[in-house]
Amino acid sequence: MKNIKWVFVLYSIAAVAAMCGIGIGVGMRSIPVAIIAILALIFVMGNGFKTKKKMREQGVL
Questions:
Q1: Contact 26, 34 (CB under 8 A)
Q2: Residue pair 16/38 in contact by the 8 Å Cβ criterion
Q3: Which residues are CB-contacts of 15 (< 8 A; sequence separation ≥ 6)?
Q4: Which among 36, 38, 41, 61 could bridge 18 via Cys, Cβ 3.0 to 4.6 Å?
Q5: Which residue has the higher pLDDT, 48 or 3?
Q6: pLDDT per residue over 9-61, tens digit each?
Q7: CA distance 23 to 9
Q8: Cα 30–32–29 angle (5° rounding)?
């Protein structure tokens, strides 16, 4: 690994936090918390893939 892409580290940490939020929502038996965490996970993962595609097209990756 030559160069760390910190933006992807932040995306991965945010995705893990959203996954933990899903677990917390299920543990609390709170459907709204679980749904919000699922939506957050979809948003974070989507932005991560979009960023990766854009960087690949620019030749940065």
A1: yes
A2: no
A3: 41, 44, 45, 48
A4: 41
A5: 48
A6: 999 999 999 999 999 999 999 999 999 999 999 999 999 999 999 999 998 88
A7: 21
A8: 10
For the chain, where are the E strands, in sequence order? none
Burial class, 19, CB count within 10 angstroms (exposed 0-12 / middle 13-18 / buried 19+): middle
Q: Contact 52/8 with Cβ under 8 angstroms?
A: yes
Closest to 47 (Cα-Cα) out of 11, 9, 21, 6: 11
Helices 31-58 & 6-27, crossing angle to 10 degrees? 160
Rounded-to-integer distance, Cα 61 and Cα 5, Å: 9
Q: Which pair of tokens denotes residue 12?
A: 């991965």
